[in-house]
């Protein structure tokens, strides 16, 4: 495979106002976070008292003090890509192929779509580039609070930008999404109890968000608990936690197909249709398996699926060319490795992902022994921030939280190193604002 073949995509004209947002991101190091306002946003109820201080102490790099700017055209392009992916995922031939290569549990269809799809983008001169999709994307509630805690850095900027989503009604939209999932499987039946499920949830980096979700549900009359996936019980035809029956599971596990022995109980209840689970194994197969990016970035494959010309153009311009790593193309991919990024097909959180120009022979052998894809390398753009009084360049990506093909909120992640890590001074989640 040649380098030109790897990067052959239909490229739209450059986004006209890109230079405006890029200039701000590269030159304006102002801090816009109002820490006291953020504390009030996080501690909106007595049960959450102290949460802001806890985050500052235990997760000092969760929130950046700097905002990220994009243009209206960039936001529109991300929205178009999210809708295009949704359209393709609904096509029978695409769906059947995705389900066929996943474990059998992905073939179950109970109705729910899956909450909080996360479309992760790098910003480039050719427009936003979709580098991957996640089905248990975390951070939406945290970022809604963060975005509402910003202040303009100067009078000139007061009316220059707008939020990337409806911040005043974000929690309402998120709650409505969970209720939509419930009704898709249970109709008009009442929803009584939700469990936010992960392994050792209190030890998870985004545990503060679990607490926020528990309060969100409770404030709207739905009992909510935070549960360890290993403590669930399957008894009397009900999924239970400490004896209490559960109606819906907000699934934050990274065992996407419930294959680990400690998740056998949740698997049994899900297979029996005894509990509504969202996001679920089917959503992972349709969206987050990185082998899907192979078809989404290939003109011939999209044509064979019957994708219309407009949707095809949107995807080819917005999804970096991706191929499966095989024994047949291994030599060519190794030769081109400096132009590529290698990712495990079922990976998450950038685990075992490799930038080609830093790839060792040992890592390459690991890649060949597993199921990987190679993606055309799209370097992240940068944001200048203040760290200890000095200007520092950090990398950034943009996450679009979406449901049913529509973006609910955008958030950026600022970092140093190969991938996002929440260990960078000045980095972490950053709100995204759209220039007028």
Main attributes?
Dna Ligase, domain 1, 436 residues, 19 strands, 8-stranded mixed beta sheet, 34% helix, alpha+beta, 2 domains
Can you walk through the features of this model?
- There is one protein chain.
- The protein is of the alpha+beta class and 436 residues long.
- It has two domains: 376 residues, no CATH class; 57 residues, Dna Ligase, domain 1 (2-Layer Sandwich), CATH 3.30.1490.20.
- Strands 1, 2, 3, 4, 16, 17, 18 and 19 form an eight-stranded mixed beta sheet that branches. A four-stranded parallel beta sheet has the order 6-5-10-11, covered by helices on one side. Strands 12-15-13-14 form a four-stranded antiparallel beta sheet.
- Helix 3 packs across helix 7 and helix 5 packs across helix 14.
- The longest helix is centred in the N-terminal third of the chain and has 18 residues.
- The chain starts with a helix and ends with a strand.
- The N terminus is likely disordered.
- Number of helix segments? 16
- CA-based shape: globular
Query: Low-confidence spans: pLDDT under 50, at least 5 residues?
Result: 1-17
Count the beta strands: 19
Largest sheet: 8 strands, mixed
N-to-C CA distance: 43 Å
The proportion of residues forming helix, as a percent range, comes to 25-40%
What is the average per-residue confidence, as pLDDT, rounded to a whole number?
Answer: 92
Any idea how many domains?
2
β-strand amount: 15-25%
- Structural class computed from helices and strand pairing: alpha+beta
Computed CA radius of gyration, to the nearest angstrom: 22 Å
